[in-house]
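Researcher: I'm preparing a figure for a lab meeting and need a structural model of a single chain. I don't have an experimental structure, so a prediction will have to do for now. The sequence is pasted below. Please return the structure as tokens so I can convert it later.
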Amino acid sequence: MKHYIHIYINQKLKELKILDTELSDSANVSKGQISKLKHGLTDRLTAKTYYSIIKAFNESFAEAEKIVFPRISLNLLKFEGAKRNSFGKMMQTFEVKVNSIEEIAHKTNIDLNRLKSLYYRKSSPEAYELILIEKALGKKSGELFEVLYGNP
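Model: Understood. Here is the structure written out token by token.
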């Protein structure tokens, strides 16, 4: 998904009257990476880098999201699962599974294999993926970022 972190960084640097090096130090992101992000030279924006930059600017996730991901789909797909027969409907009353990996994949339109990679392998989520997952779970903007990357 296309991101506009470069616009966000440039706006905040100008607004706060700080240098790239100050952002790099407070976000704990390398100067080279900040430069690439600032100039729009990166296609991928990891959730951790996004989190670190927002926290360094002391910005709300909801406000940052409007600039960085202005086109992110807020309309999650409804998950209904397969149609069940009478036995399946009866058994459904005993099931308590919610927010399964399949349901999250369907609601967010993130490929199931990509989610499996995030859940079970050493993949790192991209910022937009974590935002969509937050929305699918009904969490506040930035809530999962804080859980994953916030200080204990």
